[in-house]
Amino acid sequence: MTTLTLGKALNRGLRNALAADDRVVLMGEDIGTLGGVFRITDGLQAEFGRERVVDSPLSEAGLIGTAVGLAYRGFRPVVEIQFDGFIYPGFDQIVAQVAKLHYRSRGAVKVPITIRVPFGGGIGAAEHHSESPEAYFAHTAGLRVVVCSNPADAHVMIQQAIASDDPVLFFEPKRRYHVKGEVDEAASLADAKPMGIATVVAPGDDVTLVTYGALVQTAKDAAVAAAEDGVSLEVIDLRSLAPVDYPTLEASLRRTGRLVIAHEAGQQGGVGAEIAASLTERCFDYLEHAPVRVTGHDIPYPPAKLEQHHLPDLDRILDGVDRVLGRANSLSGVEA
Amino acid sequence: MTLSDRDATGLLTRPESFVQLVDETGTRRHDAEFDPWVADVDAAALGRLYRDMVIVRRLDAEGVALQRQGELGLWPPLAGQEAAQIGSVRALRDDDFAFTSYRELAVAWARGVAAEGLVTTWRGTASSGWDPAAHRVAVPQIIIGAQALHATGYAMGLRWDHSDAAAIAYFGDGATSEGDVNEAFVFASSFEAPVVFFCQNNQWAISEPVGLQSKQELARRADGFAMPGIRVDGNDVLAVLAVTRMALERARRGDGPSLIEAVTYRMGPHTTADDPSRYRDDAELAAWRERDPIARLLALLEGLGVDVAGLERETAEAADRAAAELRAACLGLVDPPALSVFDHVYAEPNSHVARQREHYERYLALFGDEASDQNGAGR
């Protein structure tokens, strides 16, 4: 075991992937000489060369589109999008090309492209640097969408994403890049838990609290606080948003009967909406209360000095927990 | 660095010029720079280019007829662009890779795609008609210009693989306004990717004239990306062959991308759903009919002493046979089984798609044998 930050764990995972398969190439803006604006690719160009770790022109459509061409050629491109809010110029190539090519070619062309996206807020950044665009991609057939929340998962999941023959949107919680954790660098990928499986990160009996990315730590903190209040939260780190690991969620919800889903992204058409609907369909007879979503507001990402009013935090999550428990909460007496 | 340093052939961007080796009357025009690229093309080779063009024109007419008869949902005619497509595709080596739009019937046909593969997309039985790796032709692209980036990425991979093969991207004049095409120019130039950008300027993007896309010759765009831009008579198959060979050789040598603007004309509608009489007049059409790519080649062959009557007869028979094969293949296509709608969404097993498939299978089972006959086994 080694103690690594989440960012360094990604770096080591990428290094392993580059070493394991010479068809893996990293592409992105500032990822080579600089090592990426978050230093996630630090040192990799020096070790693997300029044709394996490629500084690209500033064009997200160019990055994704050339990655498609490289996939035709049998490469396994790993594209870094510098910030969440910069992904949109590449949206057409992702949705119309990356997502559909395997289907359109009737399986003849594999598209093993990994698109890394530092995402989410809480870092006091300028506009377009704090967004959570994951629902767009979870909505798109043909893409897999995964989110890491801790160094150990980051290390394994990035390697699994790159090894996958399907295109993967790989979301990285940028405000947790510096969080440290134990990573077993020698562990075999073959024995690792598949990236499509969710993790129960804190067992509990009263309420199932589902989240992903940076909010996993917030949810764990909420579970500790709730326990002091006599409420037992089961916290589940989704890890995969497409597909969702419903068996793990169902098993929990059938015990607790109460569901809270939290994410930074807005509520309308979000991942939480889909999970609430699907779990209601699947577990209706077990529910003691309607599922509750604790999410960012449906607003453009606000200026830095207002972001604490946008992002779900420990108290807002606990307010949602109070709602599913029928306890006094912010909406008591109000038709929610 | 001066422009001439970039290219050992001494070729500069020459958008003001117009490479033409065979004029509208079938007269051979000599060009010191490009003649050497087609020095091997004798009367027999010209006869084969003629044959190619006649066959694809006949296949195209059959496609239009099949659509008019209700057998195809849509057809994007290539009529008028035979020389641009045949001249360029016949310049390729087997290991070169073509990334096309939806109108490059001649490219797919010349690369050996079977009749069935030419019609599946338009009959609606599948999104693609062939294995791209087998024919070195990508799945045809409907998103305008997107394939220019794919060709560029593929070419970057060729370079990293130390291959001397090349990629070619086919797109139209409308596509030159798309970001993807311009971004492809940037990437290809910066990475010296062995790719040929082959723009068929057929004058119209559905109803929009080329003047709406560009106020200057499209080939001049190349200059801003430090690559040669070559304007060629797209209705002159010999000239197209020459300039494409030159650009491919340049790519193989490691000198990077080129832009070819093949000036041609879409004689038919954008697709069978279009009505060009709403936006262009008969006089324009008549003027372009005078520049027909097939007629001028036949005139050249006649001047060379070839028995053109015999050639015409033999070629027409071959074209009719090809058209009959296309029709038979089209009518022989069967609708795919219902549950195959879920095939190949992902390369790996996917719990979400598997569940939807299972649910739909249960739903279909409500209808008994009639439905299950259509289900088939899927994948």
Automatic annotation (TrEMBL), chain A:
This protein's UniProt keywords: Oxidoreductase, Thiamine pyrophosphate
Name assigned to this protein: Alpha-ketoacid dehydrogenase subunit beta
Needed cofactors: thiamine diphosphate
Span of domain Transketolase-like pyrimidine-binding: 4-179
Organism: Agromyces soli
UniProt superkingdom: Bacteria
One Pfam match: Transketolase_C
Keyword Oxidoreductase listed: yes
Automatic annotation (TrEMBL), chain B:
InterPro entries xrefs: Alpha-ketoacid_DH_E1_comp, DH_E1, PdhA/BkdA, THDP-binding
Pfam families listed in its UniProt record: E1_dh (PF00676)
CDD domains xref list: TPP_E1_PDC_ADC_BCADC
Keyword Repeat annotated: no
UniProtKB keywords: Oxidoreductase, Pyruvate, Thiamine pyrophosphate
Cofactor: thiamine diphosphate
Keyword RNA-binding: no
Occurrences of domain Dehydrogenase E1 component (ranges): 51-306
Classification via NCBIfam families: PDH_E1_alph_x
Protein name: Pyruvate dehydrogenase (Acetyl-transferring) E1 component subunit alpha
Organism: Agromyces soli
